[in-house]
Every structure is written in C-alpha cells, then in structure tokens.
Amino acid sequence: MSRYTEGVCDDGAAILKDGVPVSITEILSMLNLHEQMVNTQIGMQRAIDTLRDEHARPLLAAAPELYEALRYMVTIFEHHAETPEEFNAIGTALNVLGTAEGDEGDAA
C-alpha cells in the first residue's frame, strides 16, 4: 500500500506518493477513482442487504407454521413409538422444540 506525505517543492507544498511528487491531475484522478470505488462498495452492500432481507422475511413469516408442523409431526411419532428408546428419542425432540419455543418468547 502506498504512503502519501507532504513535501516542499520549489516555493510551495507538494504531495508525495512513496516519496515521489504527484501531480494535481494524478491526485484528482485517484480521488475520483476512490470515490467511485466507495460508492460501488456501498451499492453492493445495499444490494446484499436487500437480498438478505427479501429472503429472510418469508422465512421469518413462515417460522411459526413450520414450528407447529414439526411439533405436530413429533407428537404423531410419539404416539407410535414402540420401544422406550423410540419414546425417549421423540421426547428429546419435543424438549428441543420446547426450548426453541421458549427462546423465541424470551427474545420478544
């Protein structure tokens, strides 16, 4: 990365890039390029944020329905458990769902 400093040239100040004087035209070109790059980066970040929001909204909106569907499925499986191990595994799944439900309530 280059280092810009101030120096003296003839009877005035000069801007140096790595110790070498830089013309006003070069400085203006670099400043304009820098501004274009910053604006491009800002635009890209806004596009990324918009895409993220567009994808997140439907998922967040569907989360309660998905939770209820999963809970219903686990309840059905619980009723069909044939061994203690199956029943315990399903009970563990219900506890995990209950924890997720509790965490959701705490965050609100």
Description of the molecule:
- By secondary structure, this protein is α+β, with helices and mostly antiparallel strands.
- The protein has one domain.
- It is 74% helix and 13% strand.
- It contains two helices and three strands.
- It has helices at residues 24-79, 84-107; strands spanning 4-9, 12-17, 20-21.
- Strands 1-2-3 form a three-stranded antiparallel sheet, with no helix packed on it.
- Strand 1 and strand 2 form a beta hairpin.
- Helix 1 crosses helix 2.
- The longest helix has 56 residues, at 24-79.
- The model is unreliable at 103-108 (pLDDT under 50).
- Proportion of residues in β-strands: 5-15%
Report, as a whole number of angstroms, the end-to-end distance.
47 Å
- Rg over C-alpha atoms, rounded to the nearest angstrom: 31 Å
State the strand order across the main sheet.
Answer: 1-2-3
Tally of extended strands?
3
Number of helices: 2
- Mean pLDDT equals 77
Biggest sheet architecture: 3 strands, antiparallel
Low-confidence stretches: 103-108
Helical content (DSSP H or I, runs of 4+): over 70%
Derived from helix and strand composition plus strand pairing, the structural class reads alpha+beta
Shape: rod-shaped
Helix/strand order: EEEHH
Tell me the domain tally.
Answer: 1
